[in-house]
Amino acid sequence: MKAVYLHGIRDLRMHDDPMPKLSRPDEVLIKMGAVGVCGSDCHFYERGRIGHFVVNEPLILGHEVAGQVMEVGGEVTNVAPGDLVAIEPGIPCRRCRRCREGRYNICEVAVYFMAAPPDYQGAFREYFTWPADFVYRLPAGLSVEDGAMIEPLAVGVHACRRAEIRPGQSAAVLGAGPIGLLAMQAAAAYGAYPVIATDVIPFRLDLVRQLGAEALDASAGDPVEAIRDMTGGRGADVVIETAGTMATIQQAMKAVKNGGVVVPVGLPPEDQGMLPVMDMLQREYDLRPVFRYANCYPPAIAMVAAGKIALGPLRTHEYRLEETDAALTLTITGKTEAIKVLVKP
Q1: What pLDDT digit, counting tens, does each position of 149-196 carry?
Q2: For the domain with range 2-149+311-344, which CATH number is right: 3.20.20.150, 3.90.180.10, 3.30.70.260, 3.40.50.20?
Q3: pTM score > 0.85 for this model?
Q4: Which fold has domain 157-287?
């Protein structure tokens, strides 16, 4: 099979690898159908590392993935050959206290995550095997392209669940990239109104409007004051930060109402500055950070199947496996034209 490996910064090479084979009775063999390009793929491609995750050996990138089941192990009952499936890319220990509580994304032992060194290789290849526990059949009407976007949608769903969004609450999402646009739609699906999304790129703000939310140009003035004006002067009940900068994290904490909830999702380049602890104490709002997701694939798939989430408008470009370099480059440089770029092995 063909597989694309990262050998160094901006150094992708096509390999001929052996076809993978099932090694456990709880595994499935999957033919890749579509793989989304994520910001983490771009960080590894550009810098060779994200925090303590460092690429020291050739690595296959890609973890937003869907495909078709080709073969199943003897203990697998949840999927069958021929099924289109979405693949959850993190495998926890499944035995520690956090896993047993259902919070396996913060497993006390380790979460082995696809395309995160030194764990598993990623999905920019033609086939791979994966534990059936983390493989989800797509219902009729959903495509492999939809399936590849369940992973970023799961992040947005997890953010809304962490915020405990209820019908009638207002929600503001800072940053209208792929995660922000999906978190925005998830917030509306959970009953938030109004839902406000901020960005500085007109193309993304147009998508916000197309998807039914209130678009706020953060370059046109103080977004905090604008969010307060749009929520009757109180601030938003929930603010979800997806841009990953200290400036937007601080804006989120200023834009939330007294007693509200701030959900940081975006990853800043590094820890910077001080949080406004006195402000948090005096206004008693909650800070509930998000790390990936847990138990969010089934509800995310159900939301798409029920027509609550529109994925098609976010898919802007597709590339062949041989064009993975171009897919990563466009995701990095094409902020004014690209939202979700897919590679189609």
Answers
A1: 999 999 999 999 999 999 999 999 999 999 999 999 999 999 999 999
A2: 3.90.180.10
A3: yes
A4: Rossmann fold (3.40.50)
